[in-house]
Structure formats: structure tokens, C-alpha cells
Amino acid sequence: MLSLILIALIALLQYPLWLGKGSWLKVWEFDQQVLAQHEINQKLQIRNTTLDAEVRDLKQGSDAIEERARSELGMIRKDEIFFHLLEDKKNTSQASQVEEGKP
């Protein structure tokens, strides 16, 4: 009888450790969530660093502004000649249009 009481007492003491509010399973789940959030934070930190460098470059240097104007807006410098090459349906390139542009 005494052994059954001791076994029941041990089981009651072990319940919070394995199945309760602060159980090992919940601690492991929270640890996994923390690791996943840490990875997300690292990716966002890298993205923020890249964006910060781009902003600083745009504020300080004219090379980045010129590159954006060329690639996104199609702008060219004065006295430059713009060649626009079009590909035909057979994947052969030919010069189709020559324009002289202004900034």
C-alpha cells in the first residue's frame, strides 16, 4: 500500500515537469520559435543593411543616381548615342534603331 502511495506521489510530482505549464515540451517548442525568429531577424538585418548602404550611396554619390537614371528611366548623357537592339523571332539580333538622346 505504501509503495502505491509513493508511486502516486511521484507521478503527481512529475506531471508539471512533463505535461504542465512549464513542461519540457513547451520549453522545446518555445526554443524552436526563438530560433526561427532569430533567422528571420538576421535576414531582415541583412536587408536593412543593404538598403541603408543604398540610401547612403544615393545621398552622397552621383554614380548611383546616374546608374538608376540610365537603367530605370532610360536617360543618357549629352552627346551620347543610344543604340536599341531588338531580337527577331529567330533569336538573331539586329540593330533596329539608333537615336541621339538628350539628358
Automatic annotation (TrEMBL):
Q: Give membrane topology per the record.
A: Single-pass type II membrane protein
Q: Which domain of life is it from?
A: Bacteria
Localisation? Cell inner membrane
Q: Which residues lie on this side of the membrane: Periplasmic?
A: 20-103
Q: A Pfam family for this UniProt protein? A: DivIC
Topological domains on the Cytoplasmic side lie at 1
Q: Which UniProt keywords are listed?
A: Cell cycle, Cell division, Cell inner membrane, Cell membrane, Membrane, Transmembrane, Transmembrane helix
Q: Which GO terms describe its biological process?
A: cell division
Q: Indicate the principal place this protein occupies in or around the cell.
A: membrane
Identify the NCBIfam families for this entry.
Answer: PRK00888.1
- Family listed: Belongs to the FtsB family.
- Record's subunit section: Part of a complex composed of FtsB, FtsL and FtsQ.
Q: What this chain does, per the record?
A: Essential cell division protein. May link together the upstream cell division proteins, which are predominantly cytoplasmic, with the downstream cell division proteins, which are predominantly periplasmic.
Name of the molecule in the record:
Cell division protein FtsB
